[in-house]
Specification:
By secondary structure, this protein is α+β, with helices and mostly antiparallel strands. Helices cover 40% and strands 12% of the residues.
Amino acid sequence: LARRLFGLTSLDDPARETLRAFSPVRHAAKEMPPLLLVAGTSDRLIDQQRAYVATVRSAGARVTAVEIDGAPHGMEAWHDQPRWRIWEREVAAWLRGVIGVNAE
């Protein structure tokens, strides 16, 4: 992924600085638009999402985190499990409430 996005072929100090410069954590600011993050609690990246949510909140920005209990990484896997499809309602409610869009 780092190769495709940034042309990086090794993880040396200049590459690390490039990744840091583009990290969303570095750009958390009160002026950010409202943010919605949705992840499954079985996603191996859930701790990163939680840390990012904390960073964005501490910057004073509006962020809503939706965690789908037991769901893995990737929403495409969630359609087969009715209990995970709650994300659809959560996203629609967020769009209506925060953005003012009717997502029905």
